[in-house]
Amino acid sequence: MDALVAQGQFTIIKQPLGFIKVLQWIFAIFAFSTCGSYSGMFKLSVECKNREESNLAIEVQFDYPFRLHQVYFDAPTCKGENEERLFLVGDYSSSAEFFVTIGVFSFLYSMAALSVYCFILEKYRENNKGAQIDFVVTAVFAFMWLVSSCAWAKGLSDVKTATDPERVITLISACDEPENRCREVYDPKVSGLNTSVAFGFINLILWVGNLWFVFKETGWMAAFAGTYVPSQEKQPAPDSFGQGGYGQQDPYAGSQGGYQPEYGQQGGYNEDGGYSQGYEQQPTSYSNQM
């Protein structure tokens, strides 16, 4: 175990690719824990005309996964000591369980990805296969966070409505009688559920943002950034200086007119101290001119 830790490349956590995975791991925990561990309650009061038949502290408890149609409570009928059993309305377990499931799988995948980054980063980057798989999975999770967060936001709104004491009072038959008095005593606290929705959309932002950092590891960026050069415009690179280099003939040499110096001329100083050139022409003497 110590050897494995010693071989780890934990500096990747300081880089955006690894650091954002740590954030995804943390916020995934916050998202599914705030929703999956919720338990709430509210209280009602039914005061009958005959005080002995009243119940001033009806307590209703509900929790995750919010199958409210299975939650019941007993309320007085204000007709003797008889009570009626009433059930809440709605089943919102599908959206809540879907949200928690995405949170749990995001937590597991983030932890697995961090392990790969820290211990087998070379294999992850080998042939870009690991990065490409990571990109696809990240895109899937980003989409799932969008769907699950929106679904749970709608489900939470319905849960708030179904557990509103004023709405639940309408289910009690005794409250329809004007001589009886029904009122709410304690509202449910749903701040934790509101936080879970916020964490869901924070996870959505994190996973969408992570797409860019994983995309840079895939090698696809070079393909998008490159420019296409038509084949007829491509010129082969010279193999040596002899091709298209110093070995080319002077285009001005040959049959073209103009001055063509002879690099083979000979010149030097003679015995008399004068400079002689190797021209074949004989200089005209001054004596003949005179």
Q: Which regions contain 5 or more consecutive residues with pLDDT less than 50?
A: 1-7, 227-290
Overall 3D shape? rod-shaped
Query: How would you characterize the largest beta sheet?
Result: 3 strands, antiparallel
CA gyration radius, whole angstroms: 44 Å
Mean pLDDT: 80
Question: Helical residue percent?
Answer: 40-55%
Q: Which structural class is indicated by helix and strand composition?
A: alpha+beta
What strand order characterises the main sheet? 2-1-5
Reading the helices and strands in chain order gives HHEEEEHHHHEHHEEH
Number of strands: 7
**First-to-last CA distance:** 113 Å
Strand content: 5-15%
- What's the domain count? 1
Work out the helix count. Answer: 9
Structure description:
Keywords: Glycoprotein, Membrane, Transmembrane, Transmembrane helix. Belongs to the synaptophysin/synaptobrevin family. It is found in: Membrane. It is a multi-pass membrane protein. This is Synaptophysin b. This protein is of the alpha+beta class and 290 residues long. The protein has one domain (10-225). It contains 9 helices and 7 strands. The strands form 3 sheets. Strands 2-1-5 form a 3-stranded antiparallel β-sheet. A hairpin with a 5-residue loop joins strand 6 and strand 7. Helix 2 runs antiparallel to helix 3, helix 2 (16-36) runs antiparallel to helix 7 (191-215) and helix 5 (129-162) packs antiparallel against helix 7. The longest helix has 34 residues, at 129-162. The relative contact order is 0.14. Mean pLDDT is 80; it is low at 1-7 and 227-290.
